[in-house]
Amino acid sequence: MADLPPDIISQILSRIPMKSLFQFRCVAKLWCRIIDHPFFAYMHSSRHNEEHNMLVLISYPTYRQKKLSFRLVEERGRNMKANENSITEFDLNHGALMNSCKGLLCIQYKKKLRYLLLNPLRRDFLVLPKATIKSGYHELVTVTCGFGFDASTSTYKVVRVVCRRKYLTSRVEVHRVGTSSWREIGEVPPHPLQGKPVFAHGFLHWLVSPFIRKSKGMIVSFDIGTEKFQWTPNPKFESTGTAFFQLVDLKGNLGMVHLSWETNTEIWVQKDYKNKEWVRQYRIDIFAPCPRSVDGQLQAIGLWENGEILLKSSQGFFIYNPKTSLRYNQGLGLESDLSTVFYSHQGSLISISKVTEAC
């Protein structure tokens, strides 16, 4: 390929899976320049929009391991194994993954006031300015943060919501990536939010806090472009008994897990986002050989290969295929404890330095 014109090389490389491209960056300087070009990232994503997600094992710092590390998990035969070598590591204390957007991860650290954006496959990161909304020393607060993309202006934004539990009131600040500060906005969610958000179709989506009566499965969404909150209708569940809800990113679509303690686990996908219509894509019988976590719950990690859904309990991992049902995978070849989480990651060639240059 050394004698081929650069445009032909670019066309050939654009047809190669992402994980291989990161290895090919080291082959030649020309290849590296082509793969790192923003237009190539766009061309590759348009041709590989059905490329399988990667499962990333994230190990948070402990007294034994001082770094935040990321490892890829691969399926070997019918078993999943985590690579022993990490793809990237960071010297961070008390870091936590918030969410992802277009293959970039948002990490929170230092008493929930500092954030960084990371492309783990490129070993590329950006430290954001320190957030400005603080809580009182003795005040109980809940802090949640989300990272999203505004297609109308081609800008990335980080949204931080601070809720005072005693009064159930919130304050919101926004950081536009590439600028040097945060700005507080007057818009606040209609109810306090719970957990980590999911970015889909230009919106960040949260569940409503369980401290609110009749909040079961209620979804509040934030429009990254207009910077307004709104309600998003949830699916019409058949079961009305005790249930657990979880929002999940299903390859760019908003997914919702409805785990009923009486009947089954359902996973719904909002494919028609304009009309807010949900489709039930998975239904797993509660009596299937699927042990629950200590609190009786399963966790949906995300899509795996060939349309399968990856689930996790305290006993191990389950891969559910609508055609072949469940199969069990006990371990990943590495220690699994409270300092380890698993994330279904849709990789990206985007360079964060290019993102800030465009802002």
UniProtKB/TrEMBL annotation:
Protein name: F-box domain-containing protein
Organism, scientific name: Actinidia rufa
Record Pfam families: F-box, FBA_3
Domain F-box: from-to ranges: 1-43
Positions in coiled-coil regions: none
